[in-house]
Amino acid sequence: MTARVSPKERIGRFLSGQPTDFVPCVPLILNHSARVLGVKVSRYATDGETMGRANVAAYRRYGQDLITIFTDTCIVAEAMGTTLHFPDDDVARVKTPVVAEPGDAAKLRRVDVHTAGRLPVYLGAIRHCVSEVGDEVFVSCCIPAPFSNAAALRGTATLARDLYKNPGLAHALLEKSLEVINDMSEAIAQAGGIPVLVDPVASGSVLSRKTFEEFAMPYLKRALGKIKSLGMVPILHICGKTASIVDLMAKTGAAALSLDQIELADAVERTGGAVCLMGTVRPAETLLGGTPETVRQEAARCLASGKRNPGGFILSSGCEVPIETPPANVDALIAAARA
Question: Domain 7-338 is in which class?
């Protein structure tokens, strides 16, 4: 048995193909961090020091193998002009897309990610975490991929129509999104973090395989390529149903795929073991609504399937750990990986 190591050493050994003491465990503890610190999500989402303190508190409480800083998928679009609604104690959502009319796209500018909107909140949170616990654990930061950001610039339903009626506009929004996302990836790396792409709107629950291949995949390749050029391991998360696109996800250049609603055995077969897989303990049904015992049972099934993947496996939640998840259920997930 390999001697017990820190989360940072564990992830580093895992990624380099060296033996590890335990299977890495990376539940997507995002806005749930606000509950650990005892602050409202609205404060967590708008103040970098608070977000950093919350993520450090969550790491010290649970001991997960990677800090994952995040609050909402609209943060880049907001910096580019989309206005959001901020509930007092829940996640922000789009109020008014900046590209309400096709002509509005011409007004979009390449913003300074160090000063625009709430992007500095993420950067401040990263710096706080790195300063406090960066010697123990890697700090990642999730940012929207180009397709999901374009949806927040235009409105998801409107963008869906554009894909068929005005594909030129859709591609223009994707290009403008890519510019800012690549700038943000660079800023995250400079702050000491690891950029992670999340693309919930490109899910197989929303897009057909053909549409994903035409509109989402080319920009994912370029955004993940940027992350790789920064010396980082490219990680892609797409929630929802991904069975129809998981083989395409494996061809985007991602080294690890964080998956949600898919059988792991199916994912292993469809990707041919070419990439590391993460997942897929159900967030709502199991982590939020289950018990420590049901969490352990589902985690055991995931581990049994994941260990068959030649590309490696990281135990994780399928999507974000719900804000109100009982802490004992998060403990049970991590304990399953340590068993």
Answer: alpha beta
